[in-house]
Amino acid sequence: MNDRKAALKILLDIYENKAYANIALNRYFTNNQLEDIDRRFITQLVYGTVKAGDTLLWILRQYIKMPVSKVHPVIRTILRMGIYQLLYMDKVPASAACNESVKLAKKYGHVGTVKFVNAVLRSIARDRSKCDFTKAGGQTAYIALQYCHPEWLVKLFMDEFGREQTIALCQFNNTEAPLSLRCNTLKNTVEQLQEHLLKKGVECERSRFCEEAVVCTRHPSLTAMEFLREGRALVQDESSMLVAHVINPAPTDLVIDVCSAPGGKTTHIAALMGNKGKVIANDIHAHKIKLIEENAARLGITNIEVNIEDARNIGKSYKNMADKVLADVPCSGLGVLRRKVDARWNKTKAEIEKLPQLQYEILESAAEAVKPGGILVYSTCTIIKRENSEVVNKFLAAHEEFKLEPLDDFLPSGLQGRGSMLQLLPHVDNVDGFFIARMQKMK
Ligand SMILES: C[S@@+](CC[C@H](N)C(=O)[O-])C[C@H]1O[C@@H](n2cnc3c(N)ncnc32)[C@H](O)[C@@H]1O
To answer: Where does the SAM-dependent MTase RsmB/NOP-type domain lie (predicted)?
Structure first.
């Protein structure tokens, strides 16, 4: 199958079957052995088209008379891909973007739709003046279209960070995320892992932030990386690796991770404990607990015990029992939009607004499980105050038995001196956005 036909098939899976982009793409690559060059082209075309989302539809609307919703889904997807190639893929000549889209339309459409695809794409290629985003009305709409984000999200970012930072953040979200790996120190050293990766043709470097992290800038497909199956490493972003270090678990500790699936931080905590002590990995979803068990087995970790429970009840079940408790709560994930290409288009404002209440309830329950003198860590992969510092401040105001602990002793020198709560911002720190606060129970 040629690359564009493959991209069309994957995009239809995403748009019509509501498949997650990374899952649809990996599924295709698992079932079809491809050369690296083809894999890269398909990835760029699929991820780029998904990220550009409604901007492509807005452009399409400027060039057709009928409502976009009336265009057949296959033809609409061919057009989205075609516009993406025309306007965003510098290395694809306009003639190739048009001709290849027309060929796809011939396979899936009839004479009329072939002519339609041909006419629309050639007119965009010839005259781009209609793609003027300043005509959309207002600076929020302009930023949303120019940087391919939903307008409500741009508004939220503008309120939180102001115009300049919003643009920088949106631009960052459109960049490609490098693959970040955490070395499983129970099976190999970081030096051994790095040597192994170099032999396998993976281009990688050590992280600025975490001693176990290796950041890959060029690599084969994940399915070809047998060292992941062997448990020598696992995929995890650098910033999320800071959490286990902030918890700073001892080999004798009982640690409870109240929202733990799929187990990135749980298995990191367990490894830092040298496979000793006990980590209770809790999650509300039984099917996700299986992922923790699989990860632990692959990594050779035996000090994890799983528990399926709503974290809002965990305080009652383990009252005053744990040396350390992690509440890595469900969040809006606005710090990882670069990595999850479809996330910005799947989220809703209403769903995000409900999160702080749930996060607060989970934090309160997690706090109950901490024993006096013990440690409570709250973390998210988001960047807005209402899910981060506001939740922690509200909690501290209501629970004088907890005090905020300085973070610097647990952070790399490059991140020290930023205050008692750490907020990593993607466009500032060049990593996934992340929030961490560490508290101690005084009595
Ligand atoms: C941010 S993710 C956790 C990521 C995980 N700590 C890791 O590092 O791999 C949040 C998790 O919370 C779980 N969750 C959502 N609501 C929950 C609840 N009420 N109680 C327990 N877990 C919950 C979700 O299933 C999800 O796995």
So the answer is: 169-442
Residue 1 pLDDT > 70, yes or no? no
Tokens representing residue 159 in the block: 């309120």
Looking at 1-110, list the stretches that DSSP marks H as alpha helix, in order from N- to C-terminal side.
3-17, 21-31, 36-63, 73-88, 94-108
Q: For residues 11-21, give the mean pLDDT.
A: 95
Q: Which residue, chain included where needed, has tokens 């009252």?
A: 319
- Separation of CA 325 and ligand 1 centre (Å): 14
Q: Can you say which residues are annotated as belonging to the binding site for S-adenosyl-L-methionine? A: 259-265, 283, 310, 328
Q: Are 357 and 423 found together in one domain?
A: yes
pLDDT of residue 367: 98
Assess whether 292 and 417 both reside in one domain.
yes
The beta strands (E) that lie in 184-268 are given as: 203-206, 213-218, 233-235, 254-257
Is 216 part of the annotated catalytic residue set?
Answer: no
ipTM for this prediction: 0.99
Distances in Å between the alpha carbon of 206 and those of 124, 182, 189, 230?
Answer: 44, 10, 12, 21
Per-residue DSSP letter, 341:
T
Of the three residues 187, 206, 235, the one that is the final residue of a domain is 235
CATH assignment at residue 202: 3.30.70.1170
Q: Do residues 104 and 227 share a domain? A: no
Q: Which amino acid is at 213?
A: A
pLDDT digits (tens, 9 = 90+) for 301-359: 999 999 999 999 999 999 999 999 999 999 999 999 999 999 999 999 999 999 999 99
Single pTM value for the model: 0.95
Residue 259 CA to ligand 1 centre (angstroms): 4
Same domain, 307 and 345: yes
Residues contacting 402, CB < 8 A, separation 6+? 367, 376, 395, 396, 439, 440, 441, 442
